[in-house]
Amino acid sequence: MYVAMNRFRVQLGSEGAFEDVWRNRKGRLDEMDGFVEFHLLRGPEREDHTLYASHTVWRDRDAFEAWTKSEQFRDAHKSAGAHKPLYLGHPEFEGFASVEGL
């Protein structure tokens, strides 16, 4: 199993608009071999932002990497730059592989 997460620092007051972007997007994840599930997670509110994480689970790292090189990935992210005013800085990517035998 491989978990891919992107953390977003969403400006205070922009949470509803940010969530609407995700609700109304055409993700295309379900078209990919090895995709298991997706969640958008809302975290704690800080002084100037609310923390969010997009969280996808994949069969393995190879399946995730195939997604990042796919037409579906390019299509799903083609308008991502239009939403940058909603968050502070760039999303922060974190990838996690399951530890075998546990």
TrEMBL record:
GO terms for molecular function: monooxygenase activity. Residues 2-96 form the ABM domain. PROSITE patterns: ABM. Coiled coil: none annotated. Transmembrane segments: none annotated. This is Heme-degrading monooxygenase HmoA. Keywords: Monooxygenase, Oxidoreductase. It comes from the Bacteria. InterPro entries: ABM_dom (IPR007138), Dimeric_a/b-barrel (IPR011008), Heme-degrading_MO (IPR050404).
